[in-house]
Amino acid sequence: MPTQIHPFKTILFGFAFSPSLKVNVLETTRIATFFNAKLILLHVGEKTDGKQDIINGIIAETKYNDLPIEITWQEGKPYNVILDTCNKQHIDLLILGALQHENMFQYYVGSIARKLTRKVNCSVLLLIKPSAVRVPCKHIVVNGLDAPDTPVAITYALYVAFTLGAQKLTIVEEIKQKELHVTVQDDRSLKKVNLMKERLKHREESRVRKIIADLPSDLANKVNIKTQSIFGREGYSIGHYAEVARADLLVMNAPTKIGLLDRIFPHDLEHILSDLPTDLLIIRR
């Protein structure tokens, strides 16, 4: 690895005995190997000889014999057990399997995932399209929000892009429509709106360029980094962009607000959680 960045040293995968168990484990072991990480497989539920045989059989089919894997079994409520394990085991990355277009995600995902993204002290990767055979990651989209943790999210996204061999990293700056302060009524107001859009885009691109300039050069020089300004509602617009651009991974900052108002007015990340456009990596340092 050309740089000292190594954000994901210990990975936790919370698994259920569902039809997608095998493909999720195969994908997770592959990710852990690329990240040179220790992998902990956690099942919240009763341990039986039959279940142990199933998971051992799946692990035996993986191609990464040198990967350190630990299997743990705990009973209790999934949210509490996962949160406690992340804290005690000093987990850097929590991986959960997810469904893409559902009103309510199954098992660990849904309301539990929303709670975990707020409370866990680590990053979270939601997988909606795991594969038994590796599908190369080609394009990663990361948010360029004007927020304190955005430089870290972009740096980690660059690390992931390099590690997985992605060819392209797009930093998307979402600009709120309300920043325009003008209603289009005629040609004159339309020209004014277009001028304001260009100014806002220039402002955001200038800010992001400063972040790019501080990225590790040994990684930045090996990944094609692009910027894209889009106007719209936070969360909806970047999710739509990632879907239209056929991104293989979307990287977002973890939500920082956990107060009452944030529960009443959903965070932009929660809009994405309700309709995942692709695999989602939520960065928390």
UniProtKB/TrEMBL annotation:
Which Pfam family is an annotated match for this chain, by its short name? Answer: Usp
- Report the residue ranges that make up the UspA domain in this protein: 70-126
Q: Which domain of life is it from?
A: Bacteria
Q: Which CDD domains match?
A: USP-like
Q: Which InterPro entries match?
A: Rossmann-like_a/b/a_fold, UspA
Family classification: Belongs to the universal stress protein A family.
What is the protein's given name? Universal stress protein
